[in-house]
Amino acid sequence: MSTYGLRRRQTCRICGSDHLELYLDLGDQPPSNSFITAAEVSEEQRFPLQVHLCRECGLSQLLDLVSSEDIFDEYAYLSSTSRALCAHYQGLIDDALTRFAIPDGSLCADIGCNDGIMLNRYPAGRMRLLGIEPSSAGKHAVAAGHEVIAAFFTTELGERLSRERGRVSLVTSTNVFAHVDDIAAFARGVAAWLADNGVWIIEFPYLVDTIDRLYFDTVYHEHLSYLALTPLRRLFAQMGLRAFRVERVELGASGPALRLFVCLDNAVHAEDPSISAMLEAEALWGITDPTRYHAFASRVADTRRQILTLLAQLKTKGEKVAAYCAPAKGNTLLNYLGVGPDDIFAVSENNDLKIGTLTPGTHIPVISDQALLDSGAHYALLLA
Fold first, then answer.
1. What are the phi and psi torsion angles at 55 (to 5°)?
2. H-helix or E-strand containing 189?
3. With 0-12 CB in 10 A as exposed, 13-18 as middle and 19+ as buried, what is 84?
4. What H or E segment, with its residue span, contains residue 335?
5. Which of 199-221 are b and which e, b meaning 16 or more Cβ less than 10 Å from the residue's Cβ?
6. What is the pLDDT of residues 306-338, one digit of tens each?
7. Cα–Cα distance list, 130 to 63, 127, 148, 166, 172 (Å)
């Protein structure tokens, strides 16, 4: 199994402030996609999973950083196993190609292309496509016939691609931007690569949804930042970029998300009223006010107590309880609950890379969906 490196930030990754306030502590947990074998249990590592608010710009973030090179080396998450996500990204590409009248033959790219889920949504042969993927998932995109650069996206890579491949007309990065520690360098690289009127489409879980809807299980070591428009507008202004449209979408890779459209500062794209409306809404909501965040943490603790009480009641009755699906956020929940195989006998999954392993931290066996149906379990904790 991988040995993970750890370092700790002292400042906000957008504005550089050290005015950071801890508001959510989910305990020490292993990286949430690090499924293991029984032989690897004794070597498993755990790291603090704590979220801090920047009181200056409103960015929520992890300060304890597990090495991204280690997390994404052997990576068990494959996007295309979700039919709903395939349909969601088909809509994104169809809309973008039409809305921005992207000419045939244009360079289009997906940063963090995983198994090629976004690249596969383009009309065959119409665009020049390029994927960028540092993890082992990229080999699946290559097998599907796509060109993939196996690297983390940086300023230097964006500048090199601009020189060697030409400027990019449409670039997507979905459920990726929140994974990047140096998001300033990432944004600077996109700015260097983007065509004069090119469009960068980002999707990420929305901080306001995370707090209001109690989505604390989307907190894990891959997700370094919990994003909102207010801090991102500040970041983009520093890079010669601007957000010109924002949409709320109910289905993203980690649940409801923001879809943000970004261009170079002097591009032709007019600012949609959705931008000013969201900035005003975030100010009224209290994007830099710690009171709301601490209230969220109290609700998280209440939820833990309620679930544990329910599991204990079912166990007392002799009921056989499983869990359904094994996404990363499910492992955040299981570890925060502190449960194990005595409480939940198995977790079902349709990803062959996970079946036959143990869940990180809680060491619950991962079985196939059919095996769960055949098990006779009457209850399943929904993790998807």
1. -75, -10
2. helix 183-193
3. exposed
4. helix 328-337
5. bbbbbbbbbbbbbeeebbbbbbb
6. 999 999 999 999 999 999 999 989 999 999 999
7. 32, 10, 6, 12, 11
